[in-house]
């Protein structure tokens, strides 16, 4: 194949990969392909772990409420979307700067993502009027808890990021919002790290999950105990009734 043929093939491939995917509104009971009720755990050998914090309808408020970061970026995506898959490495470059114990600039921006292809997140994605994937939002972390976002909404502190196609452009956009001059190859300095007492967002998410599991187990124990108490009460009442009937028969027999 000639050089020009290779170039033409590459250009054709690039044009076939969309920059975004349109979101189809899916009801919570839908069984459409690509919609799952539980997150998928995918392990890739040889690749670093994701730094962006995975959020869902269960831990969304808790993680954003507990983060020490002043701001948050929330990426709404769908795991089936080709544009989202292509964008993930770009987003992860920025997440490694701001998230986790090895972050270069921790405690400033929390980089998160929500998979709208999961049924559990349908209402959450509707709350932010997600129309396409990936769709990025920026704002103070507390604003994401207090309210959602609508296209015609005025005076909202949550903003749609309109220039984040690459890691460099997204970082430049963030720099403009907070007056910083960060670059992707910034080096880590220990003095920039906040106090070690500050919880990592992933630890918060895990803690929320563990509390939910423990709470469910406690309720099961309580219900089982109540059921045993009710059964014992019924047996006691039945025994008492049997004794009363026996005494009545004994009295009648004695009188006869």
Automatic annotation (TrEMBL):
An example Gene Ontology CC term for this record: Golgi membrane
Query: What biological-process GO terms show up in the record?
Result: protein folding
User: Which Gene Ontology terms cover its molecular function?
Assistant: flavin-dependent sulfhydryl oxidase activity; protein disulfide isomerase activity
Ranges of residues in domain Thioredoxin: 43-179
List, alphabetically, the Gene3D superfamilies matched.
Glutaredoxin
Q: Which PROSITE patterns match?
A: THIOREDOXIN_1, THIOREDOXIN_2
Q: Which InterPro entries match?
A: Sulfhydryl_oxidase, Thioredoxin-like_sf, Thioredoxin_CS, Thioredoxin_domain
User: Which terms are listed as keywords in the entry?
Assistant: Signal
Query: Is Transferase one of the keywords UniProt gives this record?
Result: no
| Extent of the signal sequence | 1-21
Q: What is this protein called?
A: Thioredoxin domain-containing protein
